[in-house]
Amino acid sequence: MITVKRTAVINDISGFGKCSLTAAIPILSVLGVECCPLVTAVLSNQTGYKSWHCTDLTGEMPKYLNEWKKLGYKFDSVLTGYMTGEKQADVIINAVKRFRSEGSLIVVDPVMADDGRLYSTYSKELCKKVIKLASLADIITPNLTELCILSQTSYKELTSHCNEEDYPLLVAEAAKKLLSDTLRTVIVTGVHFSNSICNIIVDCDVPTVIKSEIYPGSYSGTGDIFSSVVCGEITKGMSVDYAVRTACKLIERALRDTVREGTDRNDGIAFEKHLGVLINE
Ligand code: PXL
After folding, report:
1. Measured between alpha carbons, how far is 175 from 188 in angstroms, rounded to an integer?
2. Minimal CA–CA distance to 247: which of 235, 223, 230?
3. Measured from the CA of 48, which atom of ligand 1 is nearest?
4. CA distances from 210 to 108, 190, 245 (A)
5. Residues 132-176: tens digit of each pLDDT
6. Whose CA is nearest to atom 3 of ligand 1?
7. Which residue, 267, 211, 264, is CA-closest to 45?
8. 2 CA to middle of ligand 1, Å?
9. Which residue ranges have their beta carbon within 6 Å of ligand 1?
10. For 6-278, which CATH superfamily applies?
11. Residue from 9, 10, 12 to probe ligand 1 pocket by mutation (most atoms less than 8 Å from CB)
């Protein structure tokens, strides 16, 4: 019998920016995992551009969740990302509590910030809710800035050690503080070290550092592409190590094309032609 694993993806859909659901749907599908979107908002384009139009669906979400409950479907995993505000965060926290109790693996990308700065739409109060949501997850995929917010570490202080040999271990120490009976794995993304980009897997073992080629700039949606590949691969039963290496392979190839083409950072990366790297015959 062919069994298709199923992931609920709680995220927005943005017309431009190749992020959130426009990344998750193709990636999970190519991995052979069913993607069930719970759409949090519909945006003309992601919020890094100068302006955007957003239809916030927070008020509708409980009704969609009720219908899902009536259908009685269970999810192998749940993936969350960007949130539009505190009210929406409360709805997502409650949904995640329910899915957790039903046995789903919870993967939270604690979207809040990048390059040492909060996203323009994220308030301090919303960040507190993201911290709560992250504590309910099995796996989280923060970038370095988000790790600092989650672990109450000074970004400036931590990154001042970036040329020291044990820098990845210092980052891992900050991530270790977050581990609990619930949260078993922290994958820190986008750590600049020794002329490469490191992704650091932190669990109860010795941290694993996976290096990727460095490209200038940071592009919209790379975090969503990363979390979608990682969530999909782990949902299929692959190891965290394999999942992270596969995500890096896809992003590296897409970035190479994107940089060559001189694409604006807001338009995201050219991952479409490289989705084949996710196919494992
Ligand atoms: O990639 C994260 C993300 C997702 N969705 C929207 C965003 C962002 C980051 O800015 O604006 C709408």
Report:
1. 8
2. 230
3. 10
4. 20, 10, 7
5. 999 999 999 999 999 999 999 999 999 999 999 999 999 999 999
6. 82
7. 267
8. 34
9. 12, 14, 19-20, 43, 46-48, 81-82, 111, 119, 220-221, 223-224
10. Ribokinase (3.40.1190.20)
11. 12
Q: How far is the CA of 121 from the centre of ligand 1 (A)?
A: 10
The answer to whether 89 and 10 are in contact (CB under 8 A) is no
List pLDDT tens digits, range 36-82.
Answer: 999 999 999 999 999 999 999 999 999 999 999 999 999 999 999 99
What is the token pair recorded at 169? 């271990």
